[in-house]
């Protein structure tokens, strides 16, 4: 029997088994029902027996039927402010992509880092990381890959150092894939697990995760991991010794030149993007100036999204900057997945499951450093094997319960765990950027695993250190 079919059948079977455990133990029967629904959803998420978004709709049917929530209570999280924050971020990113502004930004960033082999690798990594702060890591990788492939072909025709060329090619491809994942850690909308965490923080901890505050953590942490990734690729594992490459510089300059002058559409998209980022970062002083807390992260995202669709690209033709048809490219299912995760977390809290986890942990205290290392490390390991957004949806409420049981500020433990779900460096199947560069180049799985193991260990150490320093300073 195919694996997906096993998963499809196992979901409802596990639901029935777990739900009937209500006849034993001290948990409330409703809590066992919630755990049964969680088992069904997690089984479908892990096995991908059904689309992730479809599995996330189960609470709308099951929670009212089981008497856990009313229909209104079960559906409310699917329209939470966190959902609309991410939707607005989608719209802004769509405006950047629609007229090629992201390509211009990437090529100009690559031009800034020089003409040496390692400078070119650094340029591609910086460009990939910056774009993935605002655009999906998949779109970033798909855009950067053909530029890198053309560059590699050109350099291959002009160099006699075949070993150095092979190492350069490997570093460049891995650098793009890893940077596309690392850059998303820097902003709250950069990668889905960040948004999942923000939703849980609001639902379970009654804490609003400010866009600017997240950047105070995300930018330093992602920058350190990005720098270490660059050093591991170019100075430790794959030293290429190629030096300056004029042909590469000429190609990048040529590609940038083909774009010509910025079009009206690009200038408008750049203005909206800059305005949105400005309002996210300087929300508090703007509100103080206005004398009212009018501006928040969700409202800012929606302002940017609305402007992308309503500002006219052509006053004469009355044509909007982004046509509505372009939204077909957006991953709408992610929004449903967020909603299902938040509803499940709300049910786990209201039924007492998270409190039971906290009580169990409190009776078996462990060293806090050991707990951080175990939870961050396990999140990082699991994200190599399953969707990072599904993992964050499942794992973060558990981490919050453990933190409460140990008397640790839940934010200090759950933030690095959320970030760890974006550090999938070891396997091609771990994340779309890994899969894209693996399929589009000559990378061997052993090379990716060797590099990934080192980066995974470094990431666990950096995130643990950040929890006791930077994250504690911002949210402690």
Q: Could you characterize the architecture of this molecule?
A:
Strand 1 (312-314) and strand 2 (319-320) form a beta hairpin. 50% of the residues are buried. The mean pLDDT is 85. The protein is mainly alpha-helical and 476 residues long. The chain is built from 24 helices and two strands. The protein has helices spanning 3-19, 29-47, 52-55, 58-65, 71-75, 81-98, 101-111, 117-132, 137-158, 162-183, 192-205, 211-237, 246-258, 264-281, 283-290, 297-310, 332-350, 353-362, 368-382, 388-406, 410-420, 432-439, 445-468, 470-475; strands at 312-314, 319-320. Helix 20 packs antiparallel against helix 21. Among the domains are: 1-50; 82-329, no CATH class. Helices cover 73% and strands 1% of the residues. The chain is globular and about 70 Å long. The protein has a two-stranded antiparallel ribbon with strand order 1-2. The N and C termini lie far apart (50 Å).
Coarse shape:
globular
| Biggest pleated sheet | 2 strands, antiparallel
Tally of individual helices: 24
Helix-strand category? mainly alpha
C-alpha end-to-end distance:
50 Å
Residue ranges: pLDDT <50 for 5 or more in a row?
A: none
User: Could you tell me the radius of gyration in angstroms?
Assistant: 23 Å
Helix amount, in percent? over 70%
H and E order: HHHHHHHHHHHHHHHHEEHHHHHHHH
The largest beta-sheet arranges its strands as 1-2
Average pLDDT value? 85
Topology, number of strands? 2
The percentage of residues in β strands lies in under 5%
């Amino acid at each position: 029997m195919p694996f997906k079919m096993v998963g499809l059948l196992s979901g409802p079977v596990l639901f029935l088994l777990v739900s009937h455990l209500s006849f034993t133990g001290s948990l409330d029967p409703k809590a066992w029902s919630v755990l049964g629904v969680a088992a069904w959803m997690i089984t479908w998420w892990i096995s991908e027996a059904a689309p992730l978004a479809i599995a996330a709709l189960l609470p709308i049917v099951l929670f009212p039927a089981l008497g856990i929530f009313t229909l209104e209570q079960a559906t409310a999280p699917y329209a939470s402010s966190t959902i609309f924050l991410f939707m607005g971020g989608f719209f802004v990113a769509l405006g950047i992509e629609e007229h090629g502004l992201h390509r211009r930004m990437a090529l100009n960033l690559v031009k800034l880092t020089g003409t040496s082999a390692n400078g070119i690798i650094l340029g591609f990594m910086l460009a990939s990381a910056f774009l993935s702060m605002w655009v999906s890591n998949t779109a970033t990788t798909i855009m950067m890959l053909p530029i890198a492939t053309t560059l590699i072909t050109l350099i291959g025709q002009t160099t006699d150092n075949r070993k150095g060329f092979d190492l350069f090619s490997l570093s460049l491809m891995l650098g793009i894939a890893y940077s596309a994942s690392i850059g998303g850690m820097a902003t709250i909308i950069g990668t889905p697990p960040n948004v999942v965490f923000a939703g849980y923080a609001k639902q379970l901890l009654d804490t609003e995760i400010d866009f600017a505050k997240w950047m105070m953590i995300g930018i330093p942490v992602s920058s350190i991991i990005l720098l270490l990734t660059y050093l591991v690729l170019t100075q430790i594992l794959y030293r290429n010794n190629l030096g300056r490459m004029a042909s590469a510089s000429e190609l990048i300059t040529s590609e940038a030149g083909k774009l010509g002058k910025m079009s009206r559409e690009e200038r408008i998209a750049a203005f909206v993007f800059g305005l949105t980022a400005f309002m996210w970062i300087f929300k508090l002083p703007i509100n103080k100036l206005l004398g009212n807390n009018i501006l928040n992260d969700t409202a800012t995202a929606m302002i940017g999204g609305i402007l992308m669709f309503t500002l006219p690209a052509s006053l004469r033709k009355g044509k909007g900057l982004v046509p509505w048809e372009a939204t077909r490219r957006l991953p709408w299912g992610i929004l449903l997945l967020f909603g299902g995760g938040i509803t499940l977390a709300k049910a786990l809290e209201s039924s007492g499951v998270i409190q039971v986890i906290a009580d169990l942990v409190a009776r078996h205290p462990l060293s806090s450093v050991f707990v951080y290392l175990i939870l961050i490390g396990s999140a990082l390991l699991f994200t190599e094997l399953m969707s990072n957004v599904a993992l964050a949806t499942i794992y973060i409420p558990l981490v919050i319960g453990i933190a409460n049981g140990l008397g640790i500020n839940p934010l200090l433990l759950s933030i690095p765990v959320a970030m760890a779900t974006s550090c999938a460096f070891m396997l091609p199947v771990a994340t779309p950027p890994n899969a894209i560069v693996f399929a589009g180049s000559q990378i061997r799985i052993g090379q990716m695993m060797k590099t990934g193991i080192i980066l995974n260990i470094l990431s666990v150490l950096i995130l643990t250190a950040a929890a006791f320093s930077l994250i504690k300073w911002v949210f402690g």
